[in-house]
Amino acid sequence: MSPIPGTICLFDVDGTITESRQVIDNVTLQALREQSQKVSMGLVGGSDYAKAVEQLGGEANTDIFEYIFSENGLVARRRGEIIAQQNISKFLGEELVQKLINHCLGYMSKLELPVKRGTFIEYRSGMINVCPVGRSCSQAERKQFAAFDEEHKIREKFVADLKDKFADTQLSFAIGGEISIDVFPKGWDKTYCLRFLREFPTIHFFGDKTHPGGNDHEIYTSSRVIGHKVSGPEDTVKQLKELFP
């Protein structure tokens, strides 16, 4: 079966086709593979390509998606080949990058959390990921921080501080996943990937962090996109099958 011409479905990763930072389950994987025979598909996540491959259960499963947009599309692949790549430090300049990192480390040093682990700053090609609990936390510690953050608004307050501190710059800040904050130049949110999809007049996007401040919000509300808010992988599959029975 040939995919519907001019139509593509884009999917966030964490909380949309997988549980946060987990490998996709077989039921969701099979459903996406079956639906990819009906409609073109793309992946658009905030993490780097290696993490996307890991969560898809290996390189062999990337063939489900015609496009894979890592780091919001700052690293763009079509059918496995890189078609574009941005670099945040070249764009912003090293002085601003270091000012941001130094401020974040200073802010996080004053936070009292249930636990703190390693890798509080992860430098990526198209963004800087800031993680108060540390990205090397265990799955149990991740869930513990997520619950603590829900109650105490750790990341929400952090973002408010960053917006105030860097108000005179071109930086944007978005809460992503369960434990981190994505920092990137204005316009480098998930709508960045849309520039590579001009051949598709109909674009559906499925994501869970669609609220203002969430890293799916801009693309979910884009005039070029039909947005679908989901509550998890099962809901994503349900809505996808209703759209393309």
UniProtKB/TrEMBL annotation:
Binding site for Mg(2+): 12, 14, 208, 220
Keywords: Cytoplasm, Isomerase, Magnesium, Metal-binding
GO biological processes: GDP-mannose biosynthetic process; mannose metabolic process; protein N-linked glycosylation
One function term, GO molecular function aspect: metal ion binding
Pathways per UniProt: Nucleotide-sugar biosynthesis; GDP-alpha-D-mannose biosynthesis; alpha-D-mannose 1-phosphate from D-fructose 6-phosphate: step 2/2
Residues annotated as the enzyme's active site: 12, 14
GO cellular component: cytosol
Binding-site positions, alpha-D-mannose 1-phosphate: 21, 124, 135, 142, 180, 182
Superkingdom in the source lineage: Eukaryota
Cofactor(s) of this protein: Mg(2+)
Keyword Isomerase in record: yes
Pfam families recorded: PMM
E.C. number(s) listed in UniProt: 5.4.2.8
Catalytic reactions of this protein: alpha-D-mannose 1-phosphate = D-mannose 6-phosphate
Role summary: Involved in the synthesis of the GDP-mannose and dolichol-phosphate-mannose required for a number of critical mannosyl transfer reactions.
Summary of subunit composition and partner proteins: Homodimer.
Family the UniProt entry places it in: Belongs to the eukaryotic PMM family.
Name assigned to this protein: Phosphomannomutase
Species whose genome carries this gene: Apolygus lucorum
